[in-house]
Amino acid sequence: MQERIVLLGGFGQLGSLIQETVPAKVKLFTFNSKDFDICNLAQHQSVYKDLAPTTIINAAAYTQVDNAESEQERAFKVNAQGPAMLAEACPKDCRIIHFSTDFVFGGLQQTAYKPEDVTAPASIYGASKLAGEETLMVLRPESTIIRTAWLYSAEGHNFVNTMLKLMAERDELSIVNDQFGTPTSARTLAEVVWRFVANRELKGIYHWTDQGEASWYDFAVEIQRQALELGLLSKKISLRAISTQEYPTPAQRPEFSVLDKTATYEAINFEGQKWQDELKKVLMLKL
Ligand SMILES: NC(=O)c1ccc[n+]([C@@H]2O[C@H](COP(=O)([O-])OP(=O)(O)OC[C@H]3O[C@@H](n4cnc5c(N)ncnc54)[C@H](OP(=O)(O)O)[C@@H]3O)[C@@H](O)[C@H]2O)c1
């Protein structure tokens, strides 16, 4: 079967890399937020009628974690009502692949979260993404949802690029050292998405991040170390480890949100690499 794929949110961080890594045999139809608003049911219906997709990949989302605290309605509209409309309009035999977040978890567990572990989002963003998951699982239980975390890529607005910019401009930076998760290359996730596309039997919720765990401070230290080694930065600056209390943000984030990928490794026969190795691959794209 030739896959005909509609990609929503195709110009965001993950969407761009899904586009870049598309296998030759796949016919991909990519939409940005201006051509296709995922909160417009009529648009879903007419696009799917015209294009007859075999799979719809939804990389569109409201992802501004702190702004969501004051834009609750918008966050829920894009992250929950959007997926509901997608599920309603999706043709009968068409598959949905959707993304969610480690922020659906409360963060008080001591061991990596399994897909079936109890959710308890601490933020509006996390709650809106959880509502999107639940809606999809009720309306289209055969959908595939990939929860991921701490995404970054060579381009665009993300922690790696923010750190590189600030490290070049400042003499000292203070970074939170009591929130733990896993930095994850959006490029590798995009490759993982294509493995999921290749197996239509994979339904339900899966977890994907690169391997290992880190605090934001650990991540910043490694970014600086590798960037100096590669010549992307010319001077070493002082990095100060601080607590979440010392860096208050509108949204509460989980203290610990490492995801257990055991089921995914078995499902797609791929385990990825340590986050430090993935970071190196991304930084090398900047040379
Ligand atoms: N980034 C992370 O660290 C992270 C962590 C865990 C999970 N995730 C999940 O991974 C997925 C991809 O995230 P990402 O980092 O690629 O996010 P992103 O860069 O913010 O991309 C999201 C895309 O969605 C589009 N969008 C927003 N509202 C829309 C609407 N109403 N209709 C159509 N498109 C709309 C945005 O377009 P405009 O820019 O034009 O608004 C943007 O291109 C999301 O489901 C996210 O929740 C991300």
Can you give a write-up of this model?
- With 287 residues, this protein is an alpha/beta fold.
- It contains nine helices and twelve strands.
- Strand 3, helix 3 (72-89) and strand 4 (95-101) form a beta-alpha-beta unit.
- Helix 1 (13-20) packs across helix 6 (186-197).
- It is globular and about 55 Å long.
- Residues 8-9, 11-15, 32-33, 36-39, 59-63, 78, 82, 99, 101, 129, 148-151 line the site of NADP nicotinamide-adenine-dinucleotide phosphate (NAP).
- Pathway: Carbohydrate biosynthesis; dTDP-L-rhamnose biosynthesis.
Name some characteristics of this structure:
single chain; 287 residues; alpha/beta; Rossmann fold; six-stranded parallel beta sheet; globular; binds NADP nicotinamide-adenine-dinucleotide phosphate
Brief digest:
Keywords: NADP, Oxidoreductase. The protein is α/β, with parallel strands linked by helices and 287 residues long.
Topology:
Elements: E1 4-8, H1 13-20, E2 27-30, H2 41-51, E3 55-58, H3 72-89, E4 95-101, H4 124-139, E5 144-148, E6 151-152, H5 159-169, E7 172-176, E8 180-181, E9 184-185, H6 186-197, E10 204-207, E11 214-215, H7 216-230, E12 238-242, H8 262-268, H9 275-284
The chain binds NADP nicotinamide-adenine-dinucleotide phosphate.
